[in-house]
Amino acid sequence: MYIEVLKSKIHRVTVTQADLNYIGSVTIDENLMDAANLIENEKVQVLNINNGERLETYVIKGDRGSGVICMNGPAARKVAVGDILIIISYAMMDAIEAKTFKPSVIFPDTNTNSLR
Asked: What pTM value is reported for the model?
């Protein structure tokens, strides 16, 4: 039996940009991606703490060290610059592996989106 479990989590990161005219996705600083074990084009769930919105999209690599968190395309209507987000990805694995799997969870500085 396979189950879906938490794989990666960026807990409380600040939206720096929203680009309605981009084709879609969320752009994330490459340092945050590495620390959270996220890869480009990976499906993520985005939870907006400020307004309760929840959406699914995919990751685009942002400039390393830039602190960028940019919601692109239609998702840009679900956030405002300055909103605080939680970004999560999940993985499918067998139940035995899931019992010992350790997700990558990071807690960036919400003022700079940098790692503490």
From this structure: 0.96
What class does CATH assign to 2-95? mainly beta
**Catalytic pick from 2, 8, 22, 25?**
25
In the numeric block, which tokens belong to residue 114? 């940098």
Q: What is the mean pLDDT of each run of 10 residues along the chain (116 residues)?
A: 97 97 93 98 98 97 97 96 98 97 98 93
Is 2 part of the annotated catalytic residue set? Answer: no
Give all strands (DSSP E) within the chain, no chain letters.
2-14, 17-19, 25-29, 43-48, 54-62, 69-72, 84-94, 104-106
- Please give the Cα distance from 55 to 102 (Å, whole number): 24
Which of 22, 58, 66, 104 does the annotation list as catalytic? Answer: 58
How far apart CA 91 and CA 72 sit, in angstroms, is 24
